[in-house]
């Protein structure tokens, strides 16, 4: 485990290196109020082979004032202005976070990882950021994993030709009371409308992840990076 250089005012990401040489990478964003360590325990549960060669990068969001939480400062990728089904957000901040993800991608490419072997993953707020970051990225990527999230910039995104047809896997809890299932479904349909092959899976859970879901994610990572 090591740290990359700080960028865009963010703390250095938490990084888990494979046992051998890294030849692929997953950049995985946490949700509101969490930090990069949130999904670190998931890595061993993915069931990847011991010689998988996948580097995991877990960035930390900066602290921002969050309007729907009474202006309280907390780790956030962007401000949420309203908690209705439309989920109005600060798109400038969201795109700043997406630009930070693009900088992390460039850092991995500079270290010898082909961009086609980089996957973006995100939970909740982090998922909204990686929808934007992946589909606007000027480098071709290996895939997008969206967990318990929504496509906040679906109406305003400028899609990149480099990622037309990017494979997307979306997971959502049927009992999610933070990001309603309908919001996740709408995001998935928006991505399909942009021409992306998309897998949609639901799980009997709230705003969380479950072991069966993590195992399914591991199978998807294996198919995208190790097949």
Number of strands: 10
Structural Rg: 16 Å
Task: Show unreliable segments.
Answer: 1-6
Order of helices and strands: EEEHEEEHEHEEHEH
CATH level-four homologous superfamily name: Alpha/Beta hydrolase fold, catalytic domain
Notes on the protein architecture:
InterPro entries: AB_hydrolase_fold, LYPA1-2/EST-like, PLipase/COase/thioEstase. With 227 residues, the chain is α/β, with parallel strands linked by helices. The chain has one domain (2-226): 3-Layer(aba) Sandwich (Rossmann fold), CATH 3.40.50. It has five helices and ten strands. The strands form two sheets. Strands 1-2-4-3-7-8-9-10 form an eight-stranded mixed beta sheet, sandwiched between helices.
Give a summary of the structure in a few sentences:
The chain is an alpha/beta fold and about 230 residues long. The chain has helices at about 40-45, 90-110, 125-135, 180-195, 210-225; strands at about 1-5, 15, 25-30, 55-60, 65, 70-75, 120-125, 145, 170-175, 200-205.
Write the layout of secondary structure elements.
Elements: E1 2-3, E2 14-16, E3 24-29, H1 42-45, E4 54-58, E5 63-66, E6 72-75, H2 91-110, E7 118-123, H3 125-136, E8 143-147, E9 168-173, H4 181-193, E10 198-203, H5 211-226
Parallel strand pairs: 3-4, 3-7, 7-8, 8-9, 9-10
Antiparallel strand pairs: 1-2, 2-4, 5-6
Helix pairs in contact: 2-3
Family: Belongs to the AB hydrolase superfamily. AB hydrolase 2 family.
Keywords: Hydrolase
InterPro entries: AB_hydrolase_fold, LYPA1-2/EST-like, PLipase/COase/thioEstase
């Amino acid at each position: 485990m090591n740290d990359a250089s700080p960028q865009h005012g963010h703390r250095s990401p938490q990084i888990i290196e494979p046992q051998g040489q890294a030849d692929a990478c997953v950049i995985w964003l946490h949700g509101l109020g969490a930090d990069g360590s949130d999904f670190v325990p998931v890595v061993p549960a993915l069931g990847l082979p011991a010689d998988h060669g996948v580097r995991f990068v877990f960035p930390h969001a900066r602290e921002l004032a969050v309007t729907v939480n009474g202006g309280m400062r907390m780790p956030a990728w962007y401000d949420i202005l309203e908690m209705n089904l439309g989920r109005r957000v600060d798109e400038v901040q969201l795109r700043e976070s997406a630009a930070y993800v693009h900088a992390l991608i460039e850092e991995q490419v500079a270290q010898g990882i082909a961009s086609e072997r980089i996957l973006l993953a995100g939970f909740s707020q982090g998922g909204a950021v990686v929808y934007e970051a992946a589909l606007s990225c000027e480098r071709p990527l290996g895939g997008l994993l969206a967990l318990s999230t929504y496509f906040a910039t679906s109406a305003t995104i400028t899609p990149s030709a480099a990622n037309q047809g990017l494979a997307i896997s979306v997971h959502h809890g049927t009992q999610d009371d933070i990001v309603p299932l309908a919001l996740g479904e709408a995001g998935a349909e928006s991505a399909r409308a942009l021409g992306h092959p998309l897998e949609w899976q639901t799980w009997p859970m709230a705003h969380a992840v479950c072991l069966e879901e993590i195992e399914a994610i591991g199978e998807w990572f294996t198919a995208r990076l190790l097949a």
